[in-house]
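Recall that a protein's primary structure is simply its ordered list of amino acids. Everything else, from secondary elements to tertiary packing, is in principle encoded there. The following example makes that idea concrete.
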Amino acid sequence: MTAMRRTRPSFSVVIPVLGEAAGIDAVVDHVRVVGYGQDVEVVVVDGDPAGSTLAALTRSGVTALTAQPGRARQQNAGAAAAGGEFLLFLHADVRLPAGAFQAAAAALAAGAALGAFSLTLRTRHPWLRLAAAGATLRSRLFSLPYGDQAFFMRREVLCALGGFPDLPIMEDVALVRAVRRAGGMVRILPGRVVASARRYEAQGPVRTTLRNLALLTLFSCGVPAARLARFYPPLPGPECGAGEGGA
């Protein structure tokens, strides 16, 4: 697919995908609606070497490429191909709040090295609503958001850090900690992204929440991400892959 690139967009939205053919056009449309009036580039990075999601992409003006599977690798490849001064990393099953780009730009202008949004889950399940509230509280108290909260940062900051660490899971946690070690400020915005609850619904709300907490604790204690990845299996079916997140 031929990439159509504008000259130096303000924001580049990098969307890592795998098995997202059914919804990829809707994701692109969503970004463009939220970014209406803004200079926003959309970069879609398919972890399938055959480009199955890209084959279903019908929207024009999208920078589209394939990369080795794995969210860290896909996001790094997308960042390298992007032209924006600011980068926002959006999971395919997450939707941004209104005014997201204006709010992100203001946070970066105010000195944030990395920012993210508050979190809610697309569900009516009371436990999952509580889990999302807990994730937002954790991210604010400890300056530790997860990737499904839509990270945003300046291009030069990501480059200075060497990109997302090449880990099978916890690449988002590792990046945030790298920012903090370098003395950068992490800012959590009040606007809420809406993330899919499909992993929780498929694997059990309570079980998934407790497992995520256990994985974060073990990773914080030094257990390698490669060992922990076996306890975070991909979802079955065509909807699985790089678009998933956890609270």
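The domain at 11-231 is CATH 3.90.550.10 (Spore Coat Polysaccharide Biosynthesis Protein SpsA; Chain A). The first strand starts at residue 11 and ends at 17.
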